Amino acid sequence: MNRKSKTTAADETDAPHHEIVSSAHLVSPRSKELSEFEFGLIVSNNAFSRWIVHCMSAAGLRELTPLDVLVLHHVNHRARDKRLSDICFIMNVEDTHLINYSLKKLQGLGVVASSRNGKDVTYATTELGRKHVERYREIRENCLINALKADDALNQQIGELARLLRVLSGVYDQAARAAASL
């Protein structure tokens, strides 16, 4: 006779924890949680990339890569002209060719313009670029922010997670430098 047992909250917390990871061979007994974090980062990065591409497409700019979308937003940030090196630094991208390629693509679409400021070349969004960014913001509010339904507690958790991501990005950068020197 099969009987279904009733499980309680206490039973669930006593149950063995099975990590959700992408690469079980990388799980360290010193920090299984880091492998879980990395899997979460992979999945969330892919979802975020898909989201920003679809949102910008809905705003009228199709066929952009996630990096193109992020570069456009950063160039538009605070309505200040940006140098290539500054964009790379803020976005934590070492390969300037990637950012330069995005800038050229965005210039070709007429949403970013370059100008000379002494020896420096700077980039700014055009009126058309600002219109697409504003439309993106409207779509983001309607589709993402409304779906999130964040209250003060959730917003506080999101802020704490953002802080933790910045801390961990520093740890990953330091580890990358150490690995590069091996």
From TrEMBL:
Molecular function, one GO term: DNA binding
Domain HTH marR-type, by residue range, is: 64-129
Pfam families in alphabetical order: HTH_27 (PF13463)
SUPFAM superfamilies the UniProt entry points to: Winged helix' DNA-binding domain
Q: Which InterPro entries match?
A: HTH_MarR-typ, Trans_reg_MarR_HTH, WH-like_DNA-bd_sf, WH_DNA-bd_sf
* Keyword DNA-binding among UniProt keywords: yes
The entry's keywords? DNA-binding
The keyword Transport is assigned to this record? no
Q: What is this protein identified as?
A: Winged helix DNA-binding protein
Organism field: Caldimonas mangrovi
Q: What is the lineage of its organism?
A: Bacteria, Pseudomonadati, Pseudomonadota, Betaproteobacteria, Burkholderiales
